[in-house]
Amino acid sequence: MILEEAKQKVYQSPIVKYIKPEKIEKAFSKVYVYENEEEFLKVHGKSWTGGRLEGFNRNGISYIGPQATPHTIIHEVLHTLSSEFDKKGHRIVNGIMGKEGENFANSVNEGLTDYLACKISGEKPRNYRIGHEFFGKMDSSISQYYQDDEILYRIYLNHDDKSFKDFLNSGLGEKNGAHTIYENFLYFSSNEIEELTNRISKNVKKEIRKRPFRKIVQFLKGKWKGQGEILQLEEGSKQDFREQYKTEFDGTIDQAMQERITQTGKKVEKEKEI
Question: N or C, which end of the chain is more exposed by having fewer CB within 10 Å?
């Protein structure tokens, strides 16, 4: 049965690291699978003109149609697991939509929901093209940015739209970069998504390469304790450091860094004596 198959795939996914088993079981207990298309559409209760309808979720209850696959169930259950509800059972927080009400926040959230559902189900995407293109090309960058391969699961299930928007703002180099994406998500072409994600990837790599230097600056500005410290740098950062100080030092980059830290420390100590 597709319901049991979907549940098994969820339990084999990173979802279990963030959601307790009892909450997963509760979400699956509210899944209703219909074998008759007419009965399914009747439950939907609205005139559907969007093509094939496989399932939908209302206030934590998942309704699954006869054309559904395990992926459909996982998609709808993810909506329940990533939401918060009031005492009356009404959804008040939904994934990464946030509470600001951007025009296409729901489309961004649906895109990430289906992207994660595909990763869990192993099925190829058949809906939410923009979401799959965007998150598929951005997955590696945001994982590197937060040094967490499962960051998309975490921000989605914890409805942490702030971390997601902070990443977008940093990646795009704009204070309101996230808002721009939320506002125009449905209008992006494949070329525009490619341009956006390439820009994000480029800026994220720059940011990551700067981080070791920020540690050095912090160390030198107020954390000198009378002894040097060799900081481990990625090869790209070491090259930047080597180019910057190549006229001052000989030897290895670690020796150069050690020497510079020691010299600066002695200078700080001397200033304190004065």
Answer: C
